[in-house]
Amino acid sequence: MGGESRVFTLAEVSGHNHRKDCWLVIEGKVYDVTKFLEDHPGGDEVLLSATGKDATDDFEDVGHSTSARSMMDEFYVGDIDTSTIPTKVKYTPPKQPHYNQDKTPEFIIRLLQFLAPLVILGLAVGIRFYTKSSA
């Protein structure tokens, strides 16, 4: 390229997101992969879907070979201004009510308070029925 490398914002790079003009951000560098789209072993859709964001994780997840990594140099056009890339938001699950083990006995006691009278009533009816029928 000669001279200083150009620094792009993510907004600038995001505009290059179609088959005739496709740029990617990988490991802080910007690559114009337009000419490589039809030769990419994974197909052009994979590259097109990685535009407009930091595609480093996508690139690393696939496990590209050393030769694939060295090929990238010919598509290098500059660096990304990392301050323009949104920070990754870690997924935090919604707050769940904290499981309190002390509530378990309370639940069992309430259940027993409900079931015990039913059992006693059932026994009383059963005994009365049994004593009536045997008399």
How would you describe what is shown here?
- By secondary structure, this protein is α+β, with helices and mostly antiparallel strands.
- Helix content is 41%, strand content 15%.
- It contains 5 helices and 5 strands.
- It has helices at 10-14, 44-49, 56-62, 66-71, 103-134; strands spanning 6-8, 17-18, 21-26, 29-32, 76-80.
- The relative contact order is 0.14.
Topology:
Layout lengths: L5 E3 L1 H5 L2 E2 L2 E6 L2 E4 L11 H6 L6 H7 L3 H6 L4 E5 L22 H32 L1
Nearest-angstrom radius of gyration?
Answer: 34 Å
The general outline is: rod-shaped
Q: Characterize the biggest β-sheet.
A: 5 strands, mixed
User: Strands across the major sheet, in which order?
Assistant: 1-5-4-3-2
Distance between the termini: 110 Å
Strand content: 5-15%
Q: Give the integer mean of the pLDDT values.
A: 86
Parts with pLDDT < 50 across at least 5 consecutive residues: none
Helix content: 40-55%
Class based on secondary structure composition and strand pairing: alpha+beta
Number of H/I helices: 5
Oligomeric state of the chains in view? single chain
* Total number of strands: 5
Report the order of strands and helices: EHEEEHHHEH
GO molecular function: heme binding; metal ion binding
Keywords: Heme, Iron, Membrane, Metal-binding, Transmembrane, Transmembrane helix
Subcellular location: Membrane
Main location: membrane
